Amino acid sequence: MTIFNRTTPEQPVNPPTPARTTMPTPPPDIKSPLSATAQTISPPATQGALMASVISKALKITGQLESTEDIQIDGEIDGDVRGVNVKVGSGARIKGTVYGETVELAGSVDGKIEAKKVMLTGTSHMSGDIVHQDIKIESGAFIDGHLKPEFGKTGSKTSSPVSFKPVVAAETKVG
Fold first, then answer.
1. Which of 11, 99, 116, 131 is deepest in the core (most CB within 10 A)?
2. For the whole prediction, is pTM greater than 0.70?
3. With bands split at pLDDT 50, 70 and 90, how would you rate the model's confidence at 159?
């Protein structure tokens, strides 16, 4: 039984395929590397949500790593790391300084952490100093270094002391 299905030669009815979405075909005057076959399209990321750059456990990087967004590290890095929010996974190893607004450590760092907020999980292994404003340390975390709550302060204890020399007034002879 057909309900209100009418086909005319100008408009053939093609039932939609729910499992696949086709890519639009570019106009003939534009060269495109896209094929005309149907392809599955993943939905776009939601607006405003930033995705972290991921260094997988299969990667080993020698050199500096810097991002203007979040970083998730599961591999090995021999060098400094700088990001907004830096997460160091339980199997990750970093030899260098880790900078960020927030740093969450579950792996190991042999160097230094400088962050506004630092979180050390129970699996973390830290060899070096931590310069922070706010810190959370879970039971089981290992730290071999100093905790310095100095992050963001303008004056630093390591700055060289200022010395003043007395000013000697020159004698004036009147005469």
1. 131
2. no
3. very low
